[in-house]
Design goal:
The chain is of the alpha/beta class. It is built from 20 helices and 16 strands. 48% of the residues lie in helices and 14% in strands. Helix 2 packs parallel to helix 3 and helix 6 runs parallel beside helix 7. 34% of the residues are buried. About 4% of the residues have low confidence.
Length: 450
Amino acid sequence: MMKSKSKILVLDDDPNIVEVIVTRLESMDFNVHGFTDPGKALDALRKDSYCVLVTDQKMPEMDGMVVLREAKKIDPDVEVIILTAYGSIEGAVRAIKEGAYDYISKPFEPLELVTKIEKAIEKRELKQRVRFLEQEVGDSIEYRIYAESPAMKRTLAIARQVSDSDSTVLIQGESGTGKELIARMIHYESRRKRRKFVVMDCGATPPSLIESELFGYVRGAFTGAIKDKRGIIEEADMGTLFLDEIGNISPEMQTRLLRVLESGEFRRVGELKPKQVDIRVLAATNADLEAKVEDGSFRPDLYYRLKVISIKLPSLRERKEDIPGLVQIFLSEFSRKTGKKIMGIDKRAMNMLFNHQWPGNVRELKNIIESAVVLCKGTTIGPDEILLSGIREQKEENLNTLESQEKNLVIQALKKANWVQKDAAAILGISRRVINYKIKKYNIRPEKVN
C-alpha cells in the first residue's frame, strides 16, 4: 500500500480535532485534506478520488449519516469511518449497517485511527482489484494467445521480454491480429498486473470526445458538464493505459499526450491545476505511423516516444500454421456456448480456410467459426457451413491491396445481413460506427454492388 497515493478526507465541525488528525496522518505520509464544512468536504470528494472519509457523527450543518449517504452516492468505493462521542455507539452501529467501514469513539488514540484507516484502504483496494479482475478475465478463452508458427512465437517472446519494464510499447499490425490481446498479456505479466488495465479506443471515439474521455473535466467546463468526471488517464493511475488506434488522434491531442508521457502531468478540461499520474502506456495502430510522420499528420517526437519498443504482429496470412489450433479453440468455445457437440472440421472445409486471404485476420476467423457452429446440423463442420458463413473462393489477383480485401469483406457482410449495418458489424466483429465509416470510405451502396 502506497500511503502517498492514499488520499484521506477528514471532516469534523471542531477545527482543533481536524488539525490534530490531519497533522498526525501527514506525519505518516498520508495525503490528507481536512474540512469543518460538510458541503465543502463532499465537493472535494466530487472533484477527486479519496480512499477514506473520516467524519464526525454529530455536526450542526449536516449529520454524519447524511454525509455517509451522500459520500456513497458520489463514490461507492470510498470507505467511511465514523467518529462518535461516548454514549452514541448505537448510531455508529447503524451507520455500519448503511455502509460505513467502521467507527471510533472519542476520545481516541491516534494510532487506533491510523490502524483503522490502513485496514479501510486495504479493503477498498481488494474490492477494486476483485472487480477489475472479474471484468478483465471474465472469459479466459478471450485472453488465450495461440502460437505454433515461428512468426507468432517470436512476437510472444518479445512481448514477454518487455513485460517487466515500464517502457512504452507500440504494437503494430492489421485489424483483427490481436493487438489488444498482446497489450493485455504485457500488462498481466508486468509488476502492474494487480492494478487497472484501461482501454481508450481512439478509433471508435469521436474526435470531439477524445479530450474529455482521456483527460476528464470539471463541472461547468462546457455545456452538459454538470459534475466533475475523471478521465481515462486518471483511471489508469498506477496501472496500464492502452491507447488503441493511436494514429487517429488530432495534433492537439498528440501534444497533450506527449506531455503525459514525458512528465506524467495532465489537466482536466476546465481545470488550471495539473495532476500527476504514474502509468505505463501501451499503444496500438494498424496505420503506417512513419508515413503519417512524413506527411506531417503525426508528431515525430510523439512517434519516437511511443516507439521505445516496437512489436509487429503478423497477419493470419503470415501465420497459417496457427489456423488449425485457432479453429479448435474457437470450436470448443462456441460449442460450449451453444450447447452443441461439434467434434471438428473436415479436410475440405479446412482447406477452404487455408486458401482464404483473411483480410480480417483472427477476428474474422473467429466470427466464421462462430457462424459455422450455429449453422452446423451434425457433429462435424463441412464446406457447406463455411460457404454459408460468407467465405468465397477468391483469386489472389483480385486482392491486390489490403483496402480491396477490406472493401470486399464489408460488402460480403452487408449482403449476408441484408444490408442491416448493425448485423453486418456484428458479423465482422466491429462497432456500428466503424462499419459506417468503412461504407462511406469505400462509397458502398446496394445499387452499385447488387
